[in-house]
Amino acid sequence: MLPTLRRHFRCSFVSLIENTVHEVQARHITQLAIIASPTTIHTGLYQKPLQAVHINVLTPSATQLAIIEEAIRSVIAGLDLRKPRMELEGIIHTMSSSGAEAVLLGCTELSVLFPEVAVTRIDPLHIICSVLVEAKAWI
Predict the structure, then answer these.
(1) Is 60:91 a contact under the CB 8 Å cutoff?
(2) What is the Cα–Cα distance from 28 to 80, expressed in whole angstroms?
(3) b/e code 69-95 from CB counts within 10 Å (16+ = b)
(4) Which end of the chain is more exposed for a tag (fewer CB within 10 A), N or C?
(5) Whole-number mean pLDDT of the chain?
(6) Greatest CA separation found in the chain?
(7) Domains parsed from the chain with CATH numbers
């Protein structure tokens, strides 16, 4: 959709996905775990562009996706986040043990759960904010 918008409108569009892929490449990461909502995972929103530039992507199992979705819903509902954070830390540890060099937080609610993690974190929300501030896109 973004290419179509860029062709039809004379304004700049900043892509969260494209900028995230550029950041992963800039960090020379070759194997990346993604934690995100089931919809994000099932549509390949991040996997397809990452794989197109030869980055191996590890995705959560069905059981892990259910845990991730519940954690995201907990953030949205304003619930206590201690249990969801511990469960996701376990998922991140498992994926890191499977060879992931970093974890991509593929849902903005996950940035709230993980301001910091023990592994290298790729946070698209942080990336896009930095890009927009640098570009002064808000002016």
Answers:
(1) yes
(2) 36
(3) bebbebbeeeeebeebbebbeebbeeb
(4) C
(5) 89
(6) 46
(7) 2-135 (3.40.50.1860)
